[in-house]
Write a structure and sequence with these properties.
The protein has 4 helices and 2 strands. With about 110 residues, it is mainly alpha-helical.
Amino acid sequence: MTNVKEKYCNDCGAVINVNAEICPKCGVRQMAPPMSAQSEDNRWLITLLLCFFGGTIGLHSFYNRKITIGVLQILTLGGCGIWALVDLIMILTGSFKDNDGNYVTNKG
């Protein structure tokens, strides 16, 4: 059983420090802890504002680590604004995903 400051390695199962990025036993990088609900709401609001004010140059895509899509949005000015409008609607409805496939939603 682990205490509050320990967790199990994702790969080998060894008990490691909760803040460890790499397991000292097997050397496997540990996954980042999930974001808190407050930071998730902030991420949604920031994504929404970036899309509204800078959607034609893909600021919201760069913020969510969608680099290739961000570059394409710069080159096409957000698909002449249509791409940015579609992304804005997706963000508002909670169907916009970041580069890791996680939905960027407002849970509050």
